[in-house]
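Now for our specimen.

. . .
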Amino acid sequence: MPTHQRIDVSKVGDVTVVRFNDRKILDEAKIIQFGTELFSLVDLDNRKSILLNFDGVEFLSSAALGKLITLDRKVKSHKGRLKMSNIRREIYDVFQVTKLNKVFDIHDAEAEALSAF
């Protein structure tokens, strides 16, 4: 399994659970690396069920949101499913304003998201 710097990857049954190593996902170089690591889960590892757990993430830039939208498209094009959990209220508010809460399958807790697969 490849070593990731921006994300922590584990498996719960058939679901790949991703946690983020950065509390603030703002820096452009880190966002590019973050995107590459996320995309490799689909493109290289052929992961079909991915849960992004945002526990501990305090800030997410618009560029990071763009990577999440691209990831969602990649997962769907591989006939997989992407879910998200543990999103702070401040970040969720951005998802609502941008209508991304309608695009992404968002759950309050990891256990709830896992049971939705």
